[in-house]
Amino acid sequence: MRLLSLLLIASLAIPVYALVTAPLSLFWQTFTAIGMVITANLLIRLKDYRWALAMMGLSTIASTRYLYWRLTQTLPIGPEFNAWDLFLSLGLVGAEIYAYVILILGFVQTIWPLHRKPAPLPDDPSQWPTVDIYIPTYNEPLAVVRPTVLAALAMDWPRDKFRVYVLDDGRRDEFRQFCETVGVTHVTRTDNKHAKAGNINAALKKTGGEYIAIFDCDHIPVRSFLQMTMGSMLQDKTVSLVQTPHHFFSPDPFEKNLATFRKVPNEGELFYGLIQDGNDFWDASFFCGSCAVLRREALEQIGGIATETVTEDAHTSLRMHTRGWKSAYINIPQAAGLATESLSAHVGQRIRWARGMAQIFRVNNPMVMPGLKFGQRICYSNAMLHFFYGLPRLIFLTSPLAYLLLGAEIIKAQGWMVLAYAAPHVMLATTTNSRLQGPFRHSFWAEIYETVLATFILVPTLLAVINPKLGKFNVTAKGGIVDRDYFDKDIARPYYLLFSLNLIGFTVGIIRLLIGGPHADTLMLNIGWTVYNLIIAGGALAVANEKRQVRSAVRVRTKLQAAIRSHADSGAYMTETLDVSYSGVALRLPEAVDLKQGDSLQILLMPERNDVWLDAKVMRAGRGLVAAKLNEMSIPQESALVQALFGRADAWIQWREHQKPDRPLRALFEVGRYGIRGGRDFFAWVVKAIWQRGTRTAPTKAA
Amino acid sequence: MRVNKNIAKLLSGMSALLVAASAAAATDVSSTATTPVTVTVTTDRAFAQTARTISFKDLGMIYSMKLRTVYGQASLPLNLRSDQIVTAATLDLHYAHSPSLRFDLSHLSVYLNDQLLKTMPLSAETASGNTVRIPIDPRLLLPHNQLRFELVAHYAKPNECEDPAHSTLWADISNDSKIELSLSPLATVPSLDRLPAPLFDSGDERRLYLPFVFNGAPDNDTVKAAGIVAAWFGGQADYRGANFPVSFGTLPAGYAVLFIDGANAPAGFERYANAREPTISVAENPVAPGAQVLVFSAPNASGLVEAAQALALGRIALHGAQAQISALELPPPRAPWTSSRWVDPSKPFPLADAATGPMSVTGLVPGPISFEFSLPPDLYPLSDKSIQADLKYRAAPIAAVNSSLNVLINDQFAGGVALNRSSKPGAKVDRSSTLDVTLPPEALHAHNRLDAQYHFRRDTNTVCQDFDATSLQGSIDPASTLDIHNYAHFTEMPALEKFADGAFPYSRLADLADTAIVLPSTPNENDISAALIALGHIGRWTRDAASRVVVTTIDALDTVKDRDLLVVGRLDRLALPEGWAQQMPLRLDGTRLQLVPIGWLTAINERYLFDRDVDSARAHASSVIVQAGQDFAALMGFESPLSAHHSVVMLTAGRDGDVRDAALALTDPGESQFIRGGLTLVRGDQVSGYDFGSHYDVGHLPWWFALKRWFSQHPYLIWPLALILVIIVAVLLNAVLRRRAKARLQGK
Predict the structure, then answer these.
(1) For labeling, which of A1, A41, A422, B53 is most exposed (least CB within 10 Å)?
(2) CA distance, residue A361 to nearest chain B CA (Å)
(3) A393 pLDDT band (50/70/90 cuts)?
(4) Does any CB of chain A come closer than 8 Å to the CB of residue B731?
């Protein structure tokens, strides 16, 4: 069988080699390019997954063909080029090779998303195993941690078979009291060595559960979490990890500042929606630090959570995989949390991830580490290599300037020829990725996500590769509120630099075109490229334009069954909620009920499984609606609210229904619109800043 | 300026070829090269010639001779036949020079073999053109002579500065200038010692003319013997070409080659009848006193073959009037392209072996350092950089601003290097620098000339500085090589141009072990003559004994199935087997001539992929045929109907045409440059070649390159094939991945 497949691969490799290397004239390369692009656009309409695989193949051929041509025909080597040309050119070629490797690794990684279903548990709950639930915290306020603890306690699992532990590295009295009140264990240690990883490792020694479920203190689990995940653990004793997605019920800075929440898939969705599912096929799903169950035996075998890197989660998984342990991924959101609020916090978090992945790449390189299977090497490598996009992204954003501003000949080819080779490479990759990733990542959005972060992760990743100890750990602050609109000019500095440079390049290019410079085709190609770069950099600027967050408490728009009554003795009316938050509830007002502002009100959420009434005060009433502010709650009341708000098993399942499917062209226009908006806002800010400096009437920071 | 006649003849061919190459397949490229002075006397009777006029054009000067700078020199070789002596000689010199010279200081001198013949003062009257007759003392003339011209010219007035390379310093010597010779034959005793002289005399630049005489219609083996001899003479005559008329019985009045087998001998040669052993002899020609006949005699035809092989292989002692061959063993068969003619591409070729003159030059305007070499015609470079000249050069460290070394291949610029040097005291050159030039494959032919041309430029800002032009020196190291790598032996056929230039495919095996000459069932004198001329042409390229050639007739093709065939004969006299006509670009249908029809797919393919307009090529060819009626000769190339990847070249003619014209076109550089494609029509001195777009391959390409080539020839199939391929992969992969996923979900 193995021999047969080798023979098959060899027999296919020969024609592929020829397809990739056949030299063509401009006319025939254009013909081939058009043929391939049309084919891909027809294939994308076909449902069967075989066609998606065919698209991957076609895209691979187009890209390989481009790269082969690029490497053999277009390097500026020869007497008419100088070392400077070659240097700039090698930068671009390097970036292109990187993009190619990531593209191909990505195809392999997500070639067959596994779509694992939760495995059934034994019918007799007494045979269900014991689980320790860890909620590590360090400096987060109690208000953030409370709902998580309450939701964990409400989990659908025999009450004697799970224990909840709050691992408080802050060693705060407030926490200890709360834990005592709700009946969970407050675990502390004397030092804070190795941060979260050390915290968990210390707790491991103090608890005895066969399985460990870990939730970040702001990830509120739904009640079905253990039932959904534990089946996979019991079905196969070699599974060391069952991971579920991280879901966020608040918009991340991109969604907030671009107003794309629930319309365009956010940055994380590609990873949790597709990549982890693809990893699962190769037995390479890895631990993401939260919303997962681990097997104590596996964890103890590798000496607990890894502490050498700042992304202890992935590192831990990697080690378990090298020992032959398996992992599973269940692509159903079973917990939800707050996304980072501000762009700066988001950037800080991603710097940590990038740095951590680079550290693992350096310390335990998955390409060479013994014990891994081929697919695992591919998946881990891609996950880590992905974070090296900083330099390539910056090169792509500045390359046309080398020609337009510096006059460097970095590609030794005719402009039209470059287009004829590069167009199928780029367009097929885009179309194919749209087919594969469409529901989880719209076309061209990756460019914005990467551009925003590129300059910030560049140095940490490179330093980590040089020496994994360089750089510092910092915790992501969550729960903060952006209380006003402002342009985060510190974060935005790289974007406006890139934007301005490309704008200059564009202007110079247009002038050169108008005065009739030589090589009009190359000039137009580079101008087109700067236009694209302007859009992307403009998009990044738009993200840096922080929008005020309106409510102090997160609001979840859900229709839940509810009952209302004015006081404990009066009759209750059935109704339904319009939206619910931690501080208030909006309900449909039954016609028979007459309420006015200031009235007190009692609300029972989800009467079918709950009998704790919440006390509230009417804020607004009328037109069939009533908005009520919740009074101070007792623990049972708060727990009831948490269960209704966050703990429902189906809480996060249908949220994706509002998204439109991806259409590359539409996505391009959409990205283009944000790019223009970012550019416009940037200009407004610049003009205002200059104006204010000129008149000296207002403090500049009001900009 | 040193002129090699060999170069000059090729040069005329090359430059005309460039014209031909630029013309599309369809355009009429008739031979326009000027025919050399009408040959009134053929070489077989040259010994009896009493007066001869040789113009500088005949000596290889295709342009006038240009003398430049304050001290301009040029020379010209003059070779004479050794079977006659010169009794009187005159040089008829036409020249012109710059009118703005200082005539009191300027003059032109003529030397013969370094003896001053005359010095002509230059004057205002002679500037626009002058003719002088200079008598030459015949005693100064040797078999090989050099005629040299020196110009000493100045233009500056006293106390003025002079630029030694000023453009006003010029004199041109017309190539209409001529040498008139009075000759007298030199009687010699017939002897084998001087073979191939006097039948072929290397001192004669004319095309070799050597009649072959058979006593009655020869059989195949006798023709084979004659063919081996013809190839040998073709090799000797080299670039001059060779014409071998044939007669069945009548002895011509001049040099001739005679074949006698058995008892059947012509009058005067009875003593050679009934030879007991194969014998080669030289005898007086009874019909023409002073002329000699090379006689091959043997008891039978195979004895004649043996005698011819012995001569061609150099296995006999050439002494006295006669040599007998007792036993002859042929050398082992030759491997492809092992003849000394060809550069062996598998290893670096030292250019020193190919130098045609000194590899060091001196002066302000030095001539080129030239190298001549032949490449196998089926050498197929697999990349643009396959053929590289690695020149190691040294140039004197003189301040010669903007000086350069340029490299030309067949007169096409291929590369160069600037020799900018500072004249700092102590500047030195003590090792060679390297210039690697990739030679463009399109510029290469079977025979090539590589010129390394130094251009020294004097610094014109320092006019008055003392300047010694002889200190400007440059050389090419003997260690310079021609490197060929990444190549295959492969050709797309038909390619008559490779037959005309390189005798491909027959020249592949130098002993012609892969060649068969096919004659009509009853060959006549013209058929055999054409075959011999063609073999002479092949011999020119192989430079080896055609010892394994086979001669057969069209009705006995079975024995030569797996050989490359050279079919000779008029279309109406060749009874071609069934199936041949379909392969031929021009065929006889009853009595009507017919050109091969071209399918629309071929036409489109040729037009859009190779930029060849086969339709109009066909239209042009048919108009030539209509005009000619049946009075034309033709060369055709096509794949052998007997075995794939073997070739047929057919030398043929219409009913009223002479097949010899087709063969002779090969020997005339002016005409052979237009032989190309799959069909070449020869009508008088008009030669036009056509490519009709049906091709076959000869040779072998590496699989990866063959695949690449196939795709570049079928570019419209790239994306459909890619699609089919990925669909196959997708279906297979889908099944594999589905199974794997199922296994994984079941926890296996």
Answers:
(1) A1
(2) 27
(3) very high
(4) yes
